[in-house]
Amino acid sequence: MGEMIEIRWHGRGGQGVVTAARLRQEAAMEAGYFIQAFPDYGPERSGAPIRAFTRLSRSPISLHSQVQAPDLVIVLDETLLGDPAILEGLKPEGWLVVNSGLPPDRVRARARGYPGRLALLDATRIALEVLQRNLPNTPLLGALARVTGLFSLEDLTRHLHHHLAPKFGEAIVQANLEAVRRGFEEVRIDPGRIPAGEWALEASTAGMALPWFELPRGGLILDAGNAVAYATGGWRTFRPVVEMEKCTHCLYCWLYCPDDAVRVAGGRFVGFDELHCKGCGICAAVCPPKAITMVEEARVMAGA
Predict the structure, then answer these.
(1) What pTM, to 2 d.p., does this model score?
(2) Mean pLDDT in each 10-residue stretch from start to end of the chain (304 residues)?
(3) Residue 283 CB neighbour total at 10 angstroms
(4) Is the CB of residue 57 less than 8 Å from the CB of residue 6?
(5) In Å, what is the CA distance from 134 to each residue of 165, 237, 282, 295?
(6) What letter would DSSP give residue 235?
């Protein structure tokens, strides 16, 4: 990697994308690097795709644009791999780091046949086991330390302890440090099969937020009632699954669903609108007979 290292982070709202980017840069600053860390998102809700960008260098950084030619791309949710924007501009000698428990060939197939350097970590499994929450950011920080070699595990955990201890109890702090340690130790490296310089995707500005001077004036909502046109089901990290033999058709799920994603016919539950269900889990929480369980979206997509 060159003197300046640029990283683009992809994840979903609520997974700690921005927090992970910031924590890593704070650790870099303590190690003597000049740093940048900034997000790119609008008013999205939990589950919506978001990005963050980081740079670190031993010299002052004069560049202040979004990262378009990253040395590393970090993907906190493998369901995003089908988006062509994930790999845009990734350098041939760069790294794709993915939160996934799948074998490398399956991940490469999902990532448009990506042949370069790949690092895989089942960070969601680690987070659920250690933190009891789907927060894969801290395990991936450990994996990133292992892949780049820029920080030792000891330096990273020392910084995290310093940052987290004033805000959380010791049990939460130690759980996060354990998640980082496991990420460092359990990351799987696949070097790929392509010489440097033979593969690259051009950087593109497609999908980037408009600069302020191109935004329409007035702030008016000209096309009200258009939520149905947006496939927000792609925001899910978990999806509801129903055991119909347990369902009593009480319709509590329909009553409490904030997105009107429960389908009802003749006073009976008939399914979910998967195009718009964001996987918030409210239906499972209010279901009296516990007929609804939340299943990780990546496992469903993998056929698990």
Answers:
(1) 0.70
(2) 83 80 77 83 69 90 88 92 89 93 93 92 94 89 89 84 86 93 95 60 45 54 59 83 95 91 93 90 94 87 64
(3) 25
(4) no
(5) 21, 9, 16, 12
(6) G
